[in-house]
Amino acid sequence: MTEIDDTDRAILRALAQDAHANAGEIGRALGISQPSAWRRIKRLTDAGVLGGAHVPADRAGLGFGVTVFLGIKLATKGRTSLEEFERAVLAIPEVQVVQHVLGLFDYRLRVVARDIADFERVLRRRIMVLPAVGQVEANVLLTEERRDGPI
Amino acid sequence: MTEIDDTDRAILRALAQDAHANAGEIGRALGISQPSAWRRIKRLTDAGVLGGAHVPADRAGLGFGVTVFLGIKLATKGRTSLEEFERAVLAIPEVQVVQHVLGLFDYRLRVVARDIADFERVLRRRIMVLPAVGQVEANVLLTEERRDGPI
DNA sequence: CTTGAAAAGAACTGCCT
DNA sequence: AGGCAGTTCTTTTCAAG
Fold it and tell me: N or C: which end of chain B has fewer CB within 10 A?
């Protein structure tokens, strides 16, 4: 088990805001030395609490102006249906995130497309053609606000 | 306007996989020199295409074992309702993401909690008490798979 | 657009309190 | 555990082909 104290939490908070912050800066911000901060960061990384950093490329700037969330209810729910559906859906380049969920739907997908017409192409020719797909619900993203969770 | 060529796209792809990749590695992978790769990365960063890297702290490891997606339909939809709802919901620490969407729901929230009981507390005492909240739909996250979009 | 080199800075290591 | 001093490595900048 990994013990996480308040200093660790402060480090996580700092890194959640800026993943490129280095051990020196973080140490200064927390009033501890650079090696000390470095050791803690390494410990957290080795423990798997801090995963690899992600770079969110600006999709809009790259010509992917539309983000759509799909809620999908499978028509058939055997073991193979789930696995096959996940594999098939992960093979679609426009699908960014596949979430297996419990509730009204079975899966939730985050899909990006150049525009609504492009999204319709993806939906009709790539997603609706999957055999297991039952009910589908779509939500088009207007704005998105992220926070640094309750670390 | 920023022109983005295939080499830039390759750099974005490489960085999306590992935000800590350095200019030297990327240059080697693409067959261009280290300073060239570095200049391109800097240009993309300055242009805002490459935002700051995010470090995904492992919520489960920190004791936040439950992630729930909420679809929320507002009961009243005036200008003030939207703004007030966004502000109120962003003030809840367990709310990680607030998405304003178009479709069956008006908002989608990503909420983390320690367990289902903790989530129920958040839902009942923090979210359902908001005046504008109408219909609410919940999906509990089981597994999540991310891909590096179609850059 | 490239190479090569030098300056700056960050990561890492031992040793000490 | 935390800090100091030092070594090694990368990043960053510059000069020049």
Answer: N
